[in-house]
Amino acid sequence: MTNITAASRFNCEKFSCVSGCLYCTTNSIGAEPNSIGCFQLWIPQELFLSLGLISLVENILVMVAIIKNRNLHSPMYYFICCLAVSDMLVSVSNVVETIVMLLHDHGLLDVQPGMLRHLDNVIDVMICSSVVSSLSFLSTIAADRYITIFYALRYHSIMTTQRAVGIIAAVWLASITSSIFFIVYHTDNAVIVCLVTFFCSSLVFNAVLYLHMFLLAHIHSRSITVNFRKKRRPSTSMKGAITLTILLGVFIVCWGPFFLHLILILICPTSHFCNCFFRNFNLFLILIICNSLIDPLIYAYRSQELRKTLQELLLCSWVFGV
């Protein structure tokens, strides 16, 4: 899939060069002009590995905390747990890929081209599944908060545990199936169009829901101020909506360059400017990994119950470690 999304670094940096090599960089660090006059940020494999491992540990802790604390056994936290799994897919794929490349660099692993292609496809499926499922669960959480605010009295009858589990299963099935489909037909530009369309559609869907929610919150806040002359704390539902707004904003910042990369492949694949943009793709991969690293920090910062459980887990691990 490297010639479409350049999601994996295998085929470009150390192995047989295909058309996707146009979008990849090398392993050093720094910024120097290349042969066509483009400045290119070089990133070491060790940085990929370090960020991937930190992100992996963080997301595992979030999943364990949600499973451990029965107070967090609600549809919204189930969806957040799935979002952590989506982030973990990026972390795992990055760690595995980087370890293989480092072992190959040091002559400790002889990778056959056939094995490399299979591993590359698996990693691309994981990354595609991550982006599709992340967008889907962000939209699902937005819908969950919307129901909580506008249909508060009926929320528990609408969003039952069984229904939440069904939604989760449907999202994962759709994400994995579509990702495999994208890899199989990676040479078709329709794959890029589908990914970009899904990204934009999800953003519009979330924006509409959030605007409606925050408009209601603003009207409600003004009503309280007029009637009681004092401000109140935002409700739990609005606090959850604010948390998801932050998560969505971070997702857009971290994944935006990747989708811009896809759009430029469609509209100007041979342009000098676009080629310069393509050559910094490893920087976009770092941003994607940073998204997986930042999300758990947002969960912990915004949820006191989750933060408390994470502190207990870290304390227990420290005590047993000593």
Question: How would you portray this structure in words?
Answer:
By secondary structure, the chain is mainly α. Helices cover 76% and strands 2% of the residues. It has 11 helices and 2 strands. The longest helix is centred in the middle third of the chain and has 40 residues, at 189-228.
What is the total domain count? 1
Number of helices: 11
Can you tell me the CATH topology? Rhopdopsin 7-helix transmembrane proteins
**What structural category arises from helix and sheet content?**
mainly alpha
Straight-line N-to-C gap: 46 Å
**Helix content, binned percent:** over 70%
Overall shape: globular
- Written as H for each helix and E for each strand, in order along the chain, the element string is HEEHHHHHHHHHH
Q: Biggest β-sheet: count, sense, barrel? A: 2 strands, antiparallel
- Poorly predicted regions are 1-6, 11-32
Would you report the number of β strands? 2
Strand order of the largest sheet: 1-2
CATH architecture: Up-down Bundle
Overall pLDDT confidence: 79
* Strand residue percentage: under 5%
CATH superfamily: Rhodopsin 7-helix transmembrane proteins
Reading off the top of the CATH hierarchy, the class is best stated as: Mainly Alpha
Domain G-protein coupled receptors family 1 profile: 58-299
Subcellular location: Cell membrane
Transmembrane segments: 47-66, 78-103, 123-143, 164-184, 190-219, 240-267, 279-301
GO cellular component, one term: plasma membrane
